[in-house]
Model the fold of this input.
Amino acid sequence: MPQFLFALLMLMPLCGVADTIYRTTDARGNTAFTDTPPPDSSPSQQVDIPHTNITPAPQALFIPVPDNSAGKEQRETPAYSVSISAPPNETTIPAGPGNFSVSTIVSAELGVSERLQLFINGTPQGEPQRATTWELTNVFPGQQDLTAAVIDGSGAVLAISPAVRVFVVRISSIRRNRNKNKK
Done:
């Protein structure tokens, strides 16, 4: 049976090339798979192989850009600058559940309708808020790029921080269970 599975797995990349796959068994009981029927008319069985699943390429990350269009009416909002003060750039978040805090510094007090929005890899995290800190939980392992933006009531970006890259380390539950079994 393992030989059958191995042969089937080896033929999977060819599924897009061959229309029909034939399975034959010789006198010794060895199974062979081919894309043509056996020449000696020995008994063969046609194998139906499902089409391979195809996943589209990931979409480009959305990185918000401040709206500086000249056609809009002039607002009485201060020119903001925002930056992430913690964690520092290129920080490694140690092994654990992926929890950490993000703090920002804004150059001027936010207006009544203005809020801060945190982005991880270009994706907004939670709702816009007036607070300058976020408590993140269960962040996916790997490299994460953090940015913070000042947005107005309509969602337009008024200022955005430079990206801060963090590396989140998480221990796999499979690995944990494997270590328990060794004891």
About this structure: The chain is about 10% helix and 35% strand.
